[in-house]
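Technical annex B. To support the medicinal chemistry partners, we prepared a structural model of the target in complex with iron/sulfur cluster, based solely on the information shown next.
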Amino acid sequence: MAGRLVSETLTKLSQMGDVTLHEPAGDSPQAERARRRRKQEFNFSDCIASLQTPRGPKPVLKTMMTTACERNCHYCVFRAGRAKTKRVTFQPDEMASAFDTLENAGKVDGLFLSSGIIKGSVTTQDKIIDTADIIRNRQGYRGYIHLKIMPGIEYDQLYRSMQLADRISVNLEAPTTARLTALAPKKIFVEELVQMLQWAQQIRHNHQNQRLASSVTQFVVGAVGDTDLELLSMSDKLYSQAKLARVYYSAFSPVPGTPFEGLPPTEAIREFRLYQSSFLLRDYRWDVEELPFLRDGNLRTDVDPKQAWADVHLLHQPIEIMQAERERLLRVPGIGPISADAIIRARRRGSLSELIHLKQIGIRTPHKMAKYILLNGRQPTRQLNLF
Ligand code: SF4
């Protein structure tokens, strides 16, 4: 009997297919994008994604409590009234036992759980919480759990979700109220979304002795005229004020049977440049005003933003590698946190006077940075044959 129920549940999972393909969840979102594909037949393994999680690479069950939704976000495959979407719903016990079966069989070691909204956000979040509670407290699972937060839930629900999960997502989708109204007319930007991220930070601050989930968000890029300046300004605020672990950028891709089906897709390179810029804000402590925006508020897509900045600021004022502070070293294209630390250690031991010395301490393409640096007071010659 139990075996039949499990088998029916796995069949339901396979009917959902690759339901969260529009929603990156790991630390390598562009690799996740590469596995997105269209096909008619699914099995439950389509719900299993290999993700870079904060606990390392894991096969994660990426699924939803329900693919039904009462909201009507214009870009979304699950929006209310879209006839082509197959609606599949799980109860918490059902979802928890499907996870248990897959975990015991060694197929998954992690859960990403999202949902469409039915009977309001509060009721929907209760089902997500109940599922995670069964998995943690009845089934005793201690591994990776990532929970989606429904818009506008109660403070205590958010706190409980953060106790159960390693990571929570509150997807803003857009960088401003006006852009969100154009994308998702029933979502309320500040009260339903931004406030969730502010509360999450407040909860972490108020309960510093507890192990609580980190927060992430996602933007849908390019459907409603949003600019890179808007997206990165909001990202910068979220990193500094709401202490987000990361921001995802998802290039808009039109879904047939939605109001946006006729809009052009956003180029993947724009998404890539946003990620590069976002890391400059989060990991390199750049100010958003320093990013090389064009007059229309977007970044060039044909050049790495760090290189575009260096072409303006470093060509005539190269950085002295033997003396620069770590923060200045990080301004040089090709020098990241690991290379900056390697330079600081190496120059304590002796002089770095040639590009080959940078190569010897692990910098892979020193010739590419030659025009932006000085080594012992002189611009290094680009001896390409050495590399
Ligand atoms: S609330 Fe979520 S699932 Fe529902 S239509 Fe909007 S984006 Fe899609």
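Notes passed to the chemistry partners:
The domain at 2-290 is CATH 3.20.20.70 (TIM Barrel).
The CA atoms of residues 67 and 88 lie 6 Å apart.
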